[in-house]
Amino acid sequence: MVDRMKTVTVVVSVYNEEQALPEFYKEAKRVLNGLSWEHELLFVNDGSVDGSLQVLEKLAAQDERVRLVSFSRNFGHEAAMIAGLDYSRGDMVICMDADLQHPPECIPKILEAAEAGCDVVNMVRTKNRSAGLLKGITSAAFYKVINALSDVEFEANASDFFAVSRRVVLVLKDSYREKVRFLRGYVQNVGFRRTNLEYEAGVRVAGQSKYSIRKLFSFAVNTILCFSNLPLKLGIYAGAVTGALGFAVMIYTIWTWVRVGAPDGYATIVVLICFMFAVLFLIVGIIGEYIAILFSELKDRPIYIVEKTENINQSRAT
Ligand code: UDP
Ligand code: MG
After folding, report:
1. pLDDT digit string (tens) for 110-155?
2. CB under 8 Å to 220, separation ≥6 — which residues?
């Protein structure tokens, strides 16, 4: 008896990609049709406000291997990838962008790794032709900081282009439902057999990048808070340092007082007060950030809301 043909799910998050989609579909299909694997193309429409949904509905109507999950509004790229994992049915699930910056030509290589027994295939960018210098530097700085602060090791240049096997999908689906999250980080830290493959990021085919510097910054802060408790301990360090400083000032004051009488310390007092309050507020702010995360976890609102689906017959695949 022949083995059941394996299936690969390609999860594509889509936010206002009306212009890029036809090209992406063509490219992806060309590669997928040449595989020895069955395939499904699972598009997650993340509340696009252009004609993306209509383009996707058309594709779904003419190709039953195109499956579509459409959100009620924009929930963000991460939420879209999570929905993709939730609805996927493949033995291997590949997450990629719709703008062809993640080249579909890499799919055969990924599946080769999967056939060799890898559960996690991490795609590492060698060159990013459309990222500016600023994005390059901030991304490198981000990985430096996060690796210094947390005890898990992150691959620099890892992207939202990765593939996971069904059993990793199940782990991610069941156990990583955090509201403030960093999916890429989970993928790198679930364990299993992992490999890195290199790819050269292409140029966006059409449309514009949806990530502003502000969005990227808040994303970076959230990730650090998610993966590290170190900032919470800053209060203890700051307390120790300023305590020691206060003690030294006290000794100095007593010494001056004994030798030359009451010291005139107006400037010192003002400087110290400003400094101490700065430290105090900073720490209160950091604690506030963690409380915000706890709060969103407590509220337990959905990561995404699905408005409609196409070619998906059960509510959620298992
Ligand atoms: N995306 C999304 N939701 C968003 C923003 C982006 O699903 O809120 C999708 C977008 O359509 C694309 C992918 O995520 O397929 C990556 O976004 P983009 O290309 O804008 O980011 P960049 O490649 O510039 O980092
Ligand atoms: Mg892109």
Report:
1. 999 999 989 999 888 886 655 667 777 777 887 888 788 877 777 7
2. 138, 142, 145, 146
